[in-house]
Amino acid sequence: MIEVTLRQIAEWTGGTVDPEFENVMIFGATTDSRNAKVGQLFVPLIGENSDGHNYISSAMLNCAATLSDRPLEDEEIPVVYVKDTLKAYGDIARHYRDTLSMIVVGVTGSVGKTTSKEMIASVMEKGYRTAKTDGNFNNHIGLPQTILGIDEDCQCAILEMGMNHFGEMSYLTNIAKPNVAVITNIGVAHIEHLGSREGILKAKMEIVEGLAPNGILLLNGDEPLLWNLKGKLPQKTYYFGMDNPECDLLARDIIPHNEGISFHVDGMRSDFEVYVPVPGRHTVYNALAALAVGILADVAPAKMQNALANFHNTGMRQKIYEEKKMTIIEDCYNAGPESMEAALTVLAEYTCSGRRIAVLGDMLELGNCSMAEHYKVGRQVANCADLFFAYGSNAERMVTGAITGGMPANCVYHFDSHEQMAKMLRNRAKPGDLLLFKGSRGMRMEHVLHLFLERE
Fold this sequence. Notes:
Elements: E1 3-5, H1 6-13, E2 16-17, E3 25-27, E4 29-30, E5 41-42, H2 56-59, E6 65-68, E7 79-81, H3 85-99, E8 103-108, H4 113-124, E9 130-132, H5 142-148, E10 156-160, H6 168-176, E11 180-183, H7 191-194, H8 197-204, E12 216-220, H9 224-227, E13 236-241, E14 249-257, E15 260-267, E16 270-276, H10 282-296, H11 301-309, E17 319-323, E18 326-331, H12 337-349, E19 356-361, H13 370-384, E20 387-391, H14 395-404, E21 412-415, H15 418-428, E22 434-438, H16 445-452
Helix pairs in contact: 3-5, 4-10, 4-11, 12-13, 13-14, 15-16
């Protein structure tokens, strides 16, 4: 983690510090006064509902110093005064990144970036001391937090980068300064803010702005918008994919299994079998991104095979387990059209002795595409499920899609509350059934799951 004096912090941020505090050392940084540790720098951020400056006193019970954008009454507190604490936070992370001699892999994409980040880290850990983004701390606050927590002897960092507006990726990549940049795909997530898939592509491609001069791009070659960039980019670029035979790294002989997927990887001087214990064709793209990074970093094939064979996903992403004699697919973290399609495909292909039940919430931030995309999801549900439970303001569009797709009307339900949904689900679900729970983060579909399973 970062270990520097306040003099250095002031230089990096263009701030000022009283001479008597210049040599105060800080060991790490935090933006949360509740979790402040001894020796850290407190960074008070201003949010929609709170101002971190109000918590400086409590943070200083442990912290060694603080930033501030205003004069403090207590002159005994070591403080670096800056114009903007959020900008200063990014500046500190950017300068600290420059002091670290390590490979940085930046990962972005509309779908699958967190899973790809986790797979890349699992592969790189087989050959390097590796750090990674914790959870999905992939924004203008989470990225600096991750970087400032990296130890000086770290050899590799896998950093997830998220965005939903133009300019955000540019900001992140100029802090992270990746050596390798991975773009998993270009979907329609956040199209409400970016206007079109072409707009999303433009926003994602901002990642190259911070890419090292000799940096490498790894792109999904099955995505036409990314493939159309072939030969037009100044950076060394490799493509990975399943359907496009011209990709540099290709997955073939793909075999789906109930508990995972296997395939043969070919290209970039590699030729071997891979098994990943995460079902679904979309898993192959995540694994290919990880393999491409590992191959470039000279990680031995056997070590990469072992890493992926023992991979476990994080959080509420496609966890499959048995409970109350039913099989649950818990995929509640987030949802967009592409990830919804992937999850429904898993629901359709997973072996079960009972019925397949789709329990879905709205997909958010789709703007003018929202009605059409929810209708399309409903149409797919008709081909994948026996019962359909829909929740949210767009539930009726999904229901309409399912019925016009051929699903009997008495097998389709829509709800205005989690409680109503869970109650009906408890009445209809039976032992042997397979249930998929999925929706955008704001829909909190895990709450429906917990109510259904009667968890406390």
